Structure formats: C-alpha cells, structure tokens
Amino acid sequence: MVMEERTVTLDAVPLSPRSLSPTSASTWQQCELKFAFVYLHRWQEPVTLPQLIGNTVHRAVELLYGSAPGERSRAAASEFMQLSLSEQLADDHYSHLFADDTALANEVIAAGEDALAGLFALEDPATITIGPEGLEVWVRAELYGAPIRGRIDRLYDAHGAQVIADYKTGKVPPSRFTEKAFFGLWTYAAALAASDADKRLADRVELLYLMGRERVSRPVLRDVALEHAKTLARIWRRITSTITTSTVTARTSPLCGWCAFAPACPAKTSAPLPKVGSSEHDELLRDLGLRQRVRDAVADALERADQPGDEKGPR
After folding, report:
1. Where are the domains of the chain?
2. Distance CA 243, CA 169 (A)
3. Cα–Cα distance list, 206 to 159, 162, 202 (Å)
4. I need a surface site. Which of 8, 65, 231, 278 has the fewest CB within 10 A?
5. How far is CA 87 from CA 49, 94, 191, 234, 303, in A?
6. Is residue 145 classed as helix, strand or coil in its secondary structure?
7. With contact defined as beta carbons under 8 Å apart, do 152 and 136 qualify?
8. pLDDT tens digits for range 38-84
9. DSSP code for 58
10. CA distances from 114 to 89, 117, 118, 174 (A)
11. Long-range contacts of 202-206 (CB under 8 A, 24+ apart)
12. Maximum Cα interatomic distance, the chain, rounded to a whole number of Å
C-alpha cells in the first residue's frame, strides 16, 4: 500500500497524559493521530477476540504461577483458564463479542488451552523460581524527564539471573520484526534500573510465544537500555509539544486495516471530515460505535499501563 503522512491540527488543546507506557509509546511511533484519539481524546477501540484470548491466558498463567510450585500442574492450568474466562466475561468491554456468538467462549478456551500447552512445552512451571511478588510487577521511573509506568508479566530468578519476561499469544514475528517486539521489555529494563537504588540492570529479557512454542531472549546491555530510555524521552517531548501546538502526524501503514479510527481518519479518506476533536468529529466516532472515557478513567488507565485490559493488540 502507499504510505502517507499528513499533519492534522486538533480542534482543541487536549489534556496531557500523566505517564508513558510501552503500549502508548508504541502507539505514538505507529501513528501520532491514533495516539491522540486514544490517549489525548480518550476514545476506546473495541476489544477484539485476540485480545480476549490474550487477556484470558495472561490471567490464567498469573494464577498458575501464583500457586505453590507443587500445585502448578497442567490440570490446574486448565481450571485457571476456566476461572479466568469467567472473570473476563464479567467485564462489559467484552459484551459486544458475545452478542451474536454464544459459542465464542469455546473458541477462547480452545485457543487458551493451546497456549497453556505451549507454556508447558517451553518450561516446567513447577521449576520456575517465582512468587506472587514477581507477577504483574509494577514499575515506575522517570527516564530523562519522561514519566514511565508499566506492569511486567513476570520478573523472576533463573539460576541467579534476573529475567524480565513477557507472554505472547500472537504469532512469532518474522526475524526482521524481532527487535521491535522487544520494545516493551527494553522499556521495563530501563525503568527497573532507574528505579533501583543501585541502578542494577536485569540480566535478561525474554518473550515467550506460547502458541508458537518459542522463547526469544536477549541479554540486557547498559548502552542499549540507556539508548532506549533516550528514545522514550524523545517521544515524551514530542507528546508534550503536541499538547502545546495541537498538531499530530497521521501515518498510514498496513496496521490501518485493524484500526477502528480509519473511517474517520484524514489520512485514510478523501471525503471532507470535521476537525479532529470537534463535536462534529466526536459524533462521527460515536456513529462508528466508539465510546469515550471520562478524564478520571483515562488517568487511571495510564497509571495502570499495560495491564492485560489496557493492551491495544493481541498479546
């Protein structure tokens, strides 16, 4: 497809986010206008089936590793999958998925069981040295002026090495996209070191692709972590500038095919559109079935950055 960038002036000066997460930083790099829709103007994209599967698996794995090592059996994992799905279905965010497909729960369970089988193929959970304090770990730090917030899937000890791990239920990316997949983990590595009294770096970051049965890891190098921190700081400065100038760049890519805002995007349609952020454009987004959060909910979501429910794509 033809790539295009277009400068878009927002109708009003938006409210500034309180922090930056791996998800929000990645969204900014993908498309500044999409960042503005989600993090400045508070619009929510509908939750997708891959997200539901990913969130359900993440919660089941959290429950599994929160158990005593001797209780982390394959049968227990399946029980946690059922419990996790019941928790997800109680969330109003998923109601639209089940409105016309009552058998969808079986599809989620089938995919989840495949992911759990992948977990047990990659490792024996009973041998992983981790307790509840190493699961869904909050990290907060300021990196060169950028306030970073995030939540790590797993921070554990692997034979004396501190490892930051992230579970993925999506496909294993082609090799040319592998380093991009580590963006969130490098963010956590830099933030952990900055928040540590001794500035100690973790030893390793790793991605566990459960359905692909593949573990991809990298050693944590100080120079790489520092450069990543500077990248985040540059992103934060650009966001701050956006708040001042009310201008962003709309950037097209193949990912536009999965973007809920595409029908109302100036870079994706030749039809005249109301100014982004105006009441007329807001009404257009509502006609697309999108909902807007109140400010307090957005601030809370950013403070809870990168919890399963805060993801914007398959995990």
Report:
1. 1-44+131-315, 49-127
2. 35
3. 15, 11, 11
4. 278
5. 15, 11, 30, 38, 22
6. coil
7. yes
8. 999 999 988 888 999 999 999 999 999 999 999 999 999 999 999 99
9. H
10. 20, 5, 6, 21
11. 202/155, 202/162, 202/163, 202/164, 203/161, 203/162, 203/163, 204/158, 204/161, 204/162, 204/163, 204/164, 205/163, 205/164, 205/165, 205/166, 206/163, 206/164, 206/165, 206/166
12. 62
List beta partners, residue 147: 142
**C-alpha dihedral, 172 to 178 to 183 to 186, nearest 10°:** 110
- The residue whose two tokens read 């082609």 is 174
Query: By C-alpha distance, which of 6, 10, 38, 44 is closest to 278?
Result: 10
pLDDT at 263: 94
- Label each residue of 66-107 as H, E or C: CCCHHHCCHHHHHHHHHHHHHHHHCCHHHHHHHCCCCCHHHH
Residues in the chain: 315
Interhelix angle for 104-122 vs 49-65, to 10°?
Answer: 50
Query: pTM (2 decimals)?
Result: 0.88
> Parallel, antiparallel, or unpaired for β 146-158 and 161-168?
antiparallel
Residue 30, SS3 per DSSP? helix
pLDDT at 314: 44
Q: What angle do CA 210, 45, 145 make, to 5 degrees?
A: 80
Strand partners of residue 208 = 167, 215
Six token digits for residue 40: 């400045």
